[in-house]
Amino acid sequence: YELRSDLVTPSKAKKNKSGKSGAKQCSKVGCTNVEGDGIQFNRIPPAPPDLPDGASQDRKLTHRAKRELHAEMMERIGRSRRGDDTKGLRICNCHPTETIHRRVYVEHDGMMISKAFDFTVVVGAGVASNINPSQASKGVGKDRLVQQQLNQLRDDEDTARLQKESTSCNASPLEMAERENIRLKGEVASARLEMQRLAELTSNDSHHSSLITCPAVEKSAGFVEGKNMTSNLAPNQKRRFRFVAVKNSLLHTSSKNAASKRGERKEKNALSAEKPPTVLPSMAASEVKRRTGFCDVSTLLAYVIVVCNGDFDRMRQKRTSLTWFEEWFLYFEWKYHITNVRQQDMEVAWGIEKKLITQVKDCKAALEMAMLQSWPTFASFEEDKELRNPQKWAKYDKYRVIQWDMTNVPAPKFGDASLYRATYNQYYGENCGKPGVGIQLCGWILLWKLWTGAVEDGTYHSKAGYIAAQKKFQEADLVDGKVIKFHNILDRGYRGNVTAFRADQDCLQPPSSRSDMRFTGKQTIHSGAVARDRSGNERGVRAMKRSGLFSRGFKESMSAKRFSDALLTWGLQVNFMYKPVH
Fold first, then answer.
1. Cα dihedral sign, 287-289-292-296
2. Residue 198, Cβ neighbours under 10 Å: how many?
3. CA triple 506-510-514, angle to 5 deg
4. pTM of the full predicted structure?
């Protein structure tokens, strides 16, 4: 399909009131070329009129292609795609053209018809603003070199002229005119010789005696001729912007699929604010538990109030077009990591892009980290004693007890040898990270910093920092003016007696024996008693791993800081989600 001949040939300029044709001017925003100096103009195809009812399939496709060609040309010259008033719009042939591939869609007899076309249009788009319009193209690097040579020639000529005028200031007007004429001829001749020299130096053909440059350089050199104006259009395509149908590209689809294909982009780009909320505070408790782990909405909101310290303005802070409740729900769903695990699933479920989802995560995590740093790390002795099970923990009535254990967080098999060695743990048989999990007798769970998997339990116990934090806390939390020391209940592999003694604390561990030696009766009873008391610690570790984000582990595509912050805040969140572990 091609445009009619009246759209292909350059249109005649309209005549003004005096009967003379008005000067043509390029319609591309930023171009100031006007008619003259050998510059030719091509007419921009106008928008076709509306089709009558009952038009054939081919006519609809042709009409739609003309519309698309017109809209594309209008956009590329810096105007609105929907501008229908194109009378008198022309573009000079100083702008190169290119061929683009587009598929157009029309509806015919309840079916959606599509066909591919190759459009010949001008290169590029208009400038963003015409406050400071750009000048004509200065060409490529070779053209700018030629322009520099011409400027140098002019500077030399001006210097010689000034010197000559200084020696003959008394010349007559006729002599001055002759000298000027000779100077101009010499300048043009020098420019031609310089252009010819550059052509011989840059040409691949030894018989080539002309150099094709951009119109701005040819005009500056002084030998612009209309027949020599260059264009990247083929001879049979000069002075035309057209479209050609691609063979065997006609497709028929149902109107239902066509409607979804046409509205796919609009639906994808639609703002979430225009859609109804995905989740509401009135949603069922089972759905809240399935997606976030909280038993119901009231528990979730209670934890949000605690995180924001009762500041409702902070609770209602938003980073996206979602409601403030949706943003909190999105964050808790990501931490629980049971539903909408993949990033693309979250984008589809919430209707926002990855960048905005990341902003929501970081914003809520920052609020949780601020709360984590402001709250006491451990429960006070009075709180611990009041909330613990008095029957089960009667023997620890006068002691401040805390149980420590370590668990694994899976990590990928790193390609770097040092990272692989630092994260591989022989006990778990995998690459992982190891955080410390502590629990007090009242059921308060706390999670310590994540270390690499190759670290030993005893090294982590002595250097992680929670022993020093316990010493500082017990000195501040006095009971009747006395210091109640921490009693650390540990597994056999910790070897924490020396570390606890140096921090003015006690340590309780199962006894160890040499190889091939049996426990004595007292040692057996002691080991069984410690194992019974540490059962609550194992249940605390299991509660920590209810989050799919940590049971699945760290992935190479994740942010290490975001993952670590989520891990630490999850250790605080579980205390508000589940019943105390005794």
1. positive
2. 16
3. 120
4. 0.55
**Cα 196 to Cα 152, 188, 192, 485, 580, distances in angstroms:** 16, 12, 6, 97, 92
**What angle, 0 to 180 degrees and rounded to 10, lies between the N-to-C axes of helices 285-292 and 324-336?**
50
DSSP output for 510-550: -----TT-PPPHHHHHHHHHHHHHTHHHHHHHHHHTTSHHH
Give the Å distances, CA to CA, from 281 to 61, 284, 324. 50, 9, 11
Q: Kindly provide the residue ranges of all beta strands, DSSP E only, lying in 125-247, ordered along the sequence.
A: 243-245
CA proximity to 385, closest of 371, 367, 400 = 400
DSSP 235: G
Residue 343 identity (one-letter amino acid): Q
DSSP string, 382-435: HHHHHHS-TTTTGGGTT-EEEEEEE--EE----SSHHHHHHHEETTTTEEEEEE
| Residue pair 121/241 in contact by the 8 Å Cβ criterion | yes
Give the contacts of 99 (CB within 8 A, at least 6 positions apart): 118, 119, 120, 121
DSSP annotation of 45 reads P
| Coil, helix or strand at residue 362 | helix
Q: What angle do CA 302, 304, 307 make, to 5 degrees?
A: 115
The C-alpha atoms of residue 448 and residue 65 are separated, in whole angstroms, by 65
In angstroms, what CA-CA distances link 215 with 145, 147, 189? 14, 11, 19
- Per-residue pLDDT of 469-509, as tens digits, reads 999 999 999 999 999 999 998 887 787 888 999 999 998 88
Which tens digit of pLDDT belongs to each residue from 346-392? 999 998 999 999 999 999 999 999 999 999 999 999 999 999 988 88
Closest CA relative to residue 339, chosen from 289, 301, 276? 289
Q: Checking DSSP bridges between strand 400-406 and strand 409-410, what pairing results, if any?
A: unpaired
What stretches of 203-337 show up as alpha helix (H) in DSSP?
A: 215-221, 255-269, 285-292, 297-307, 312-315, 324-336
Rg of the Cα trace of the chain? 41
Task: State both tokens at 330.
Answer: 């999105």
Query: For residue 195, what is the DSSP state?
Result: H
Burial of residue 201 (number of CB atoms within 10 Å: 0-12, 13-18, 19+): exposed
